Every structure is written in structure tokens, then in C-alpha cells.
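ok trying this again, last paste got cut off
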Amino acid sequence: MMLRIKRVPTVVSNYQKEEAEEGGCGRNCLRNCCLPGAKLPLYAFKKVNKVSCDNGFVDHVDKEAPVAFLDSLLLGEWEDRLQRGLFRYDVTACETKVIPGEYGFIAQLNKGRHLKKRPTEFRVDKVLQPFDENKFNFTKVGQEEVLFQFEPSSDDEVRFLPSAPIDVENSPSVIAINVSPIEYGHVLLIPRILECLPQRIDRESFLLALYMAAEAGNPYFRLGYNSLGAFATINHLHFQAYHLAVPFPIEKAPARKIATTNSGVKISNIVNYPVRGLVFEGGKTLEDLSNVVSDSCICLQDNNIPYNVLISDSGRRIFLFPQCYAEKQALGEVSPELLDTQVNPAVWEISGHMVLKGKKDYEAASEENAWKLLAEVSLSEERLEEVKDLIFEAIACKIDEDKAVTPTLIEDSTQSIEVPLQAPTLLWSLPSRSARF
């Protein structure tokens, strides 16, 4: 039996068409019709010598970048597109509040995200699906929606070029706006865009996402990933990211260490949180951490297990959530009360940022209601244990293949619960929009 759900697809580009309509270039796209002679800004980051320290991943030699990656470039370019009217609505005008309670779930009233769109069927029982060029993909976006190319530097120096040719042969990675933003600075990272990769994690692409998080260097700028079956609606490889200057509830959830790899990556169970999952941190280098997490994601994909990923703390901590909400929804196992909220629990919602479409749901938002919804997303304890066994076996095998370390995970079930440091309390009250940014 094929499992499908109906949901309103998120419009991420002004050139996004209904599936029945012909997809075209619009005015100035990233396809063969418009690429010859095209140029876009290029930010070349330094990818070597990223090593772990107590405060995150740093270069051995600190040199001032030619442009501030997050504040001046990414957010500056995003605000430029806001002024040019490229977004479907002004997300900075959306009501937002921190819900009273232990975790401080965040509720946003966002009526514009699904207006004038009809529900579309999505298959939710197959995490890996082939790329379909006939459906919307990111090569069809307008070049004005692309902020800049994001590539490793060829000479180990950070560089910014305001106008650089698009290297079609090597398929650049780009950062583009999401025209239906959830928050300030909401963008899409699209690895090797012209290769038209389906929505599936690979080592190279995941490492690129961690480099972006490290380059931003701001704990309130986070990246997220949704697999197919876990509320990704576009089958073209992409990550999302935005800036929100409050702690996410998941970042305050305690964790219990269960294993450490020989490369120093610590793996912990998330505890006392409605969605069960794993958190990864540490490692001798950024690539050590990236490889362990990406191999875990690849394991889930290969075993047809939908999942979401949150990249937090400038790439220092990564949360992995196998989930089953869409499957339950397709099987009719989700209550009408929860379905009526129209909340699609993807990475941001699972992390504690609840995007609500109705004023009534927004006004009634409570920690109890958030917990009730997210509890339906989570795998059972028994199923999570089975999934963890698959992940640990995959990690051990991959480590053995790489011959970087021995294929041994050091199990550790006696560790006490560790509670992550909380963000400064002065950012909690949300007195105004400007205080959050």
C-alpha cells in the first residue's frame, strides 16, 4: 500500500508553478536558457584547518574576512530582497511570542505561508525518490532570488567577489531566499545546484552545511534539514536556515551520553523532550563531526526512515530526529484536533518553533498543546532503540572502511544527565522585533 497525505505545499520561489502547469525560466533562471554569461556574487570560505576547541570550530590562523558573512552579506542581501518586494509577505510583521513554561516554546502566527494554495498529495512512505525535472526544482528560481554562491576557497583564503561567473561544469552551491519565510533571514542552502540532486544527505553536502553554520558564527543562526516523508516538499537537495535570537526548546533539553567515537564525537540521547532523538557534538575536527552525523542520516535514508536534522551552536551540536508523524497521518492515526492546527511538524516545529496558521490556535498556544503535538511525531522508545542499533552499526562499518579509527563505539550508559548551557535570559521576553534580531 502506498502511503500519501494531502498538504498545502510551501511556496519557496516566485517561479514555483503547480505541477500541472509548465515550468519555465520566467525571466532569468538557473537553467541552460539563462545561464550563459550569467554572474552572481561569490563567497569563498576557507575550509582547511577547522579544528575543535571549547568554543567551537576555529581556524588555526584568524584573519579578518573581507565581508562579515552573516550580518553584512547574508542578512544584508536578504533585507535587500525584502525591500525589493520579493517575499510573499513581511515575516517581520508576524506576531511571535514565547509560550510560558519550562521549555519556552515559541509560537508564531503566520497566515501568509499557505494562502491561495490548494492541498497537494505527497508520498510519505519512501524517503529516497528519484529527482524529477518535470516538477519544481531550484534551477527554476529567478537569479534575483539567489543571494550568492557559497564555495570553498581554492587558495585557503576567505574571498568575496561581488560578481563572479557561474561555473556550470563544477555546479556551484548557492544560498537563495525562501519567499515564504518562517523568520528573519530565512534562506535555502542548495548544494551543487546544477547537479539536480534529490533530497538525500551525502557527506559532501552535509559538511557544506556545517561550514555555513561555522562561517555564520552565531548560535542564533541555525540550519535545518527535512527528509522526504518528514515534511520536505521539494525533492531537490536543500537545507534551510534562519536567525532567531531566542533559545530553541530543544537546545535546553537535557541529554544523556551513550557513546563516543574514537574521533571524539559524543553521541547522546535527548531526554525529557516530547520527540525522542540523538544529539551529536565534539570531534577533533568539523569533518569528524560531519561524517558521523551524515553517515547516520545515510543509514536512516537507506532504511527508509524519515528524519529531521537541526544544526545548532554554529555547527557544534547537531540534533537528529527520526520521525513518524506523516506515516501516522496517512494511516488515519492522528487526531482531528491535531490535524485542525495544520501544523506540519518539520525540523523547526520539532525544535520548538511552532508556526501556526490560525489566530485561535495562536492565542490558545500552550506548552501542553505543543508537547501533545510533538509527542505524536516521536518514535516509541522501543523503535528508537532499533534505529540506534542500525545507526551504530553503520557508523562502525563506515569508520572501518575509512580506516581512520577502529570500528568501535565506546558505549556509556552510566553518565549523568547533562544539561546544556542556556542562552542569556535577557533575550527571552521578546519586547520588540528589533530585540530579537
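PB: full thing came through this time. The longest strand covers residues 39-45.
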